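In the previous chapter we treated chains in isolation. Here, by contrast, the input contains two separate entities that must be folded as one system, with a combined length of 819 residues.
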Amino acid sequence: MKDLKIAFLLEEFALQTPAQQLLDRFLIGYPRDGEFHKPEGMQVTAHLASGETNAELDRRVKDYGLVREQEAGAAAAQANALVIVPRGSGATANESLIRHALEKAPAGCCCFVYGALSNSLDAAKKVMELAAARKSRLCAGTSLPATWRLPDVDLQPGTPLPEALIVVHGTPPAAELDGLEGLWPVIERRRNGESGIQCVQFFKGDALWQTGRDRVWSWPLLAAAISRSDSPQGDPVKDGRTQNLAGLGLVPGLARDPRGWVLQHRDGLKSTILVLDGVIADYSFAVQAGDGTVTSAQLYRPPAPAQHQFSRLAAVLEDFYQTGKPPWPVERNVLIAGLLETFRDASLRAGERVETPALGIAYGR
Amino acid sequence: MNNMHSATHSNRSREMPFIPAAKQDRSRRQFLQALTRSAAAGVLLAGVAPAFASAQEKGPAGRKKVAILATEVRKMSHAQHFIDRFLEGYGWQGGHHFPPFELASLYVDQFPEGDLSRDRERRHGVKIYPTIAEALTLGGSKLAVDGVLIIGEHGKYPRNAKGQTLYPRYKFFKQVVKVFEESGRSAPVFNDKHLSTDWNEAVEMVEDSKRLGFAFLAGSSLPVTWRIPSLEVPLETPLEESVCVCYGGVDSYDFHGLETAQCMSERRAGGEAGVQSIHAVKGEKIWELLAARERTRRLLFAALARSHTCTAPPGYTCAMPNLDWIRRASPEAVAYFIEHLDGFKTTLFILNGLVQDFNYAGRVQETGKILSCQMYLPMPPTHTTLADFFNPLVNNIEKTILEGAAAYPVERTLLTSGMTLFAVESLFRGQVRLLTPELKVAYKPAAPSTYWRA
């Protein structure tokens, strides 16, 4: 096992933030594969961007020998593994912190960015180029690609895939990031891998339901995804009843400010992200293969405060740092950064077909 | 992960409709009226009717009829979970599944504030009968249903000196048997949770089912819910010890914990041999006994490592527990040390304050390999809105009624009922070890594993 010097470059540190969940797992340990696992020979350093006193970080200095570093560059320079965690959900990247860290980190360093890799396609490409120039390995993401699926399914590599859908909840852009992070690990395994995005359409309110009727996106896939939810809203909240929300036509009435994104991929795949607050309170996807079979699952997020989806992500990252092999192609993260940028623009042009020639990013072919 | 083809369903023959948002009708009866209105307006798509043909009011003719006998029906009571799954369907294998039955009758023993049975009667037309006999005969003189569910959990019932709640499961069951005998025919029966708080009654229930030749399914949802990870114990695995770490009360969730362990233990080489002794202890006595059992300690930590709720010290969220922390976090801990007749061991740890989930670890003889998983309960109201662990339980009840054979042996639940009530007895008598010659319940498990994985 390689001795790891891991530096956490953080914008915030508080209980139940991604920063705390990830840092503690490397500092203290976490359950992995049926046993409590403490990464061996690991030196953990933390830099808090605000530089302020932080009682929770100080507690970790006292209890577990966490090393605090005032300068981000100095922390990065001493590390062979980096974790960069922005504020909040991770949907808004701290681009200057990422660039600074990559510039200061030694060659060969493995760098993980929690959440979005950057806030635009151009910036994401530049970060990827900078990492390559520094001979660093880079990837980004949230816990959703790593968490358990109920049931435990995956797409057989090389499966022809005409249509995919994920239903999530939350505020923009965090919910959109969740939708992309939840769906991409599944769809990129399709035949010939990811082909890139040809165009994007945004719909909201009644127009979203009309496009469902018009088969712009798939009601059957939404029904399959909702069938995986353990948190349907409406009457189930009121009196505990099970209810066929999709089949009974209750979804439009329950949804608060519904919004959806339909992505046309260059190879013909159509993928849809629906943000349906008021309908469900968990994340589920459904994909339809070329032979018509539908695979669906809930992306299971264990309860707070432990939020053990971060144990799954920590295991993925520990393997990344030990092997030097990123868990997924950084091109996924570049594409997601570009999509989040496109979403910001397209949300102002609801219903329009927004061509995305710059998002023709193919990988995994 | 499984190959996707192991857990897929065909979508080709089934179209889901879009129903306009206006006037969202919540009950199925209202929905069917809406269906007619919308279809007349030319909104609905082809294939609508087949998608809802199994609804309670519009099911195919000749559907089997089911009666549910409940202690009480209020939000989140066990009976509400079962009744609503039969009336409204539930998420299953990537679709919304409607049980191919008509819920023909209810018997409800108590009507507390917040009762929902009247609402279900009004909305779905399922009649509440004043007696169990009438619920089973639909007001006639002979058995008129094809399956019976006894949901004797929740409600106000007396507790005895041992702390057992005297739910009327045996009493309900005997009234069912009386109708069967008087009708000259029987039907499959499901009994929710343990059979009885009295061993002789539990034995009598199983004997009645064999005497009259009806399928008898019983128990908890723990053996059939999701497992994280999706762990299958192959039949004839040379297991030598099982541990369950869980939470809850004595004569309550302890039964769920015992079912968690037993559905795995019974798959060991030779099958279940029965239980020869039970020793239930509390607090510090647990750790004194555990000091001499290194193997059990390892299994305790292996099971804890599958928990998603293990309490961490103040200022932290993710625990790396040691024995000292377990003792401090769960000062009122309870443990059942159980010895089986073939030398196999089961230990149940009820660690309130430390965990709020059900976790299993078992050790394979010779190799020392540890098999472990969490039996995951999507538990409302804090984490979900539905207690969907009832989905696979209802699905196994459906199979039992349709096939006329229990999806898994009732002897499992006879044994776990016995373990539960003798553990209660052990605590009542001052945490003494009890020999249990009564529990010579040997059986072989069902070959197909029945847990939720698709």
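Chain B touches chain A through 83 residues (CB under 8 Å). Residues 410-428 of chain B form the longest helix (19 residues). Compare these points with the single-chain example from earlier in the chapter.
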